[in-house]
């Protein structure tokens, strides 16, 4: 069963068309890697899935929500979808624990004690059990990104979106974040990740979607990275390595 | 020139009563002004045009007219509506309207300084617009503009002297009365100038203390956002 479907999605910013009719779908439990050069529209496609951008035409369905529809219940969509950003976007004035409990307590109306229990749980999952009372600025970039992943997980989403979450990190810190994402993939979480980490994509992605000039140019299993069918993907992969 | 304070010292109680009212006016209108200003800042940033332009009009109207004129407008405006309010109530209303406009601009700058990613993170967690402001934007915004905010509220305390014109019996009004009784204007105003200085310094200390309470991260790490 497809949990995320994009069907002929078009999106422009002013005169610039970013998505020229993008279609792909993700099954429950699948890990999809969205790859492509900067400006190919992959981040925009991801942001459209969580309605951070409104599309011009086409259809997006996420966990049964018609995302482009005018009567979409935005809060319900956000409960089903977690998103992690390149720049972490932790709230600097709140401790790691407060960052994580904010969603469950304010949005889900969960009692604080229960939210704290979940927080301890997700922090252990991302290897930050001892950082609950730290402020974001006291953490390294990799720790901040793992805390941001924990914040999303605490909302118990059905789909996780990752928008170039390791692009701001050095190789060591990238490694620790990727390990967390890999564990999440192993636990059966449905995920769509925009990434430049080709080896990582090859290892954990069930499906790879290569975007080029606002279109899905090529898609398939991890094997398309080893044997690209189009010159654009071949060119892209050879540049990445 | 010989300065003689004896007659004024004899009326010390009157000055203290005036100073106390000044403190009360400042405390109340700091709170009400902050509330009005913050709500206006939110309104100005709103995508609802009517709210944004109404708030904009209010801010411009206040920032481009003298405070004394505003006081008279409130005073005579309310009484022409048949409302007979005490001078203190009118003073509170006028001071709130005045400082609210300046606070609105300061808080707007604070909210504007919050990075788009913070709003998006809050939005994607499912927080409502109100919750985004309350939990995510308000404290960092305040922290960034806190020096301007506290200066504005100290200015407010000093500006409350103008309300003596509608016979609010605050510090300046007390001084006006004392100097007319004692014929010692220079001594009287010198003394209340000193009292105003003391009040300003005390307010700085109070704002520093409040800052320590509402910005625990700064207290712990000693860094600004």
Task: Describe this entry's structure for a reader.
The complex is a heterodimer of chains A (241) and B (225). Chain A is α/β, with parallel strands linked by helices and 241 residues long. Chain A has a single domain (2-88, 159-240), classed as Rossmann fold. Chain A is 37% helix and 27% strand. In chain A, a hairpin with a 2-residue loop joins β4 and β5. Chain B is mainly α and 225 residues long. Chain B contains ten helices and no strands. Chain B has helices spanning 6-9, 12-44, 49-63, 67-80, 87-112, 116-124, 129-159, 171-182, 185-214, 216-221. In chain B, α2 (12-44) runs antiparallel to α8 (171-182) and α8 (171-182) packs antiparallel against α9 (185-214). Chain B is globular. In chain B, 39% of the residues are buried. The model of chain B has no long low-confidence stretch (mean pLDDT 95). At the A-B interface, α2, β6 and α3 of A face α6, α7 and α10 of B. Chain B: InterPro entries: AA_ABC_transptr_permease_3TM, ArtM/GltK/GlnP/TcyL/YhdX-like, MetI-like, MetI-like_sf. Chain B: This is Amino acid ABC transporter permease. Chain B: Residues 19-207 form the ABC transmembrane type-1 domain. Chain B: Its main location: membrane.
Give structural attributes.
heterodimer; A: 241 residues; alpha/beta; Rossmann fold; 6-stranded mixed β-sheet; 4-stranded antiparallel β-sheet; 10 strands; globular; B: 225 residues; mainly alpha; MetI-like fold; 10 helices; 80% helix; 0% strand; cell membrane (chain A); amino-acid transport (chain A); ATP binding (chain A); ABC_transporter-like_ATP-bd (chain A); Amino acid ABC transporter ATP-binding protein (chain A)
CATH architecture of chain A: 3-Layer(aba) Sandwich
Main beta-sheet annotation of chain A: 6 strands, mixed
Beginning-to-end CA distance, first to last residue of chain A: 34 Å
The CATH class of chain B: Mainly Alpha
**Can you tell me the overall shape of chain B?**
globular
């Amino acid at each position: 069963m497809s949990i995320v479907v994009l069907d002929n999605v078009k999106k422009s910013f002013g005169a610039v068309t970013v998505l020229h009719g993008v279609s792909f779908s993700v099954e429950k439990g699948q890990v999809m890697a969205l790859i492509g050069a900067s400006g190919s529209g992959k981040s925009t496609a991801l942001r459209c899935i969580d309605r951070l951008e409104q599309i011009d035409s086409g259809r997006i369905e996420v966990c049964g929500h018609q995302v482009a529809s005018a009567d979409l219940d935005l809060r319900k969509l956000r409960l089903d979808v977690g998103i992690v950003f390149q720049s972490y976007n932790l709230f600097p004035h709140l401790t790691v624990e407060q960052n994580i409990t904010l969603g469950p307590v304010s949005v889900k109306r969960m009692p604080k004690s229960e939210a704290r229990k979940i927080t301890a749980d997700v922090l252990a999952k991302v290897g930050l059990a001892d950082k609950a009372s730290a402020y974001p600025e006291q953490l390294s970039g990799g720790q901040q990104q793992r805390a941001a992943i924990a914040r999303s997980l605490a909302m118990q989403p059905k789909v996780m979106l990752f928008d170039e979450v390791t692009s701001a990190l050095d190789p060591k810190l990238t490694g620790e974040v990727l390990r967390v994402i890999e564990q999440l993939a192993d636990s059966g979480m449905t995920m769509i990740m925009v990434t430049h980490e080709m080896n990582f994509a090859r290892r954990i992605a069930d499906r790879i979607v290569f975007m080029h000039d606002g279109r899905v140019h090529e898609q398939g299993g991890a094997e398309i990275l080893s044997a690209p069918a189009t010159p654009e993907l071949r060119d892209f992969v050879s540049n990445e390595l | 020139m010989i300065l003689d304070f004896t007659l004024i010292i004899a009326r010390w109680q009157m000055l203290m009563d005036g100073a106390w009212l000044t403190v009360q006016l400042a405390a109340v209108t700091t709170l009400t002004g902050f509330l009005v200003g913050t709500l206006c800042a939110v309104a100005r940033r709103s995508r609802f045009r009517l709210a944004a332009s109404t708030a904009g009009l209010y801010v411009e109207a206040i920032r481009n007219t003298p405070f004394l004129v505003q006081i008279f407008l409130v005073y005579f405006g309310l009484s022409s509506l048949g409302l007979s309010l005490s001078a203190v109530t009118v003073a509170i209303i006028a001071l709130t309207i005045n400082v609210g406009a300046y606070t609105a601009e300061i808080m707007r700058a604070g909210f504007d300084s919050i990075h788009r990613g913070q709003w998006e993170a809050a939005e994607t967690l499912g927080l409502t617009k109100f919750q985004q402001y309350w939990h995510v934007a308000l404290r960092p915004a305040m922290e960034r503009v806190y020096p301007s905010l506290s200066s504005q509220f100290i200015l407010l305390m000093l500006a409350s002297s103008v309300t003596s014109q509608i016979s609010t019996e605050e510090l300046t009004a007390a001084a006006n009365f004392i100097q007319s009784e004692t014929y010692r204007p220079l001594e009287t105003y010198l003394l209340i100038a000193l009292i105003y200085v003391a009040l300003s310094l005390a307010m700085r200390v109070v704002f520093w203390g409040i800052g320590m309470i509402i910005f625990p991260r700064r207290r712990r790490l000693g860094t600004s956002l």
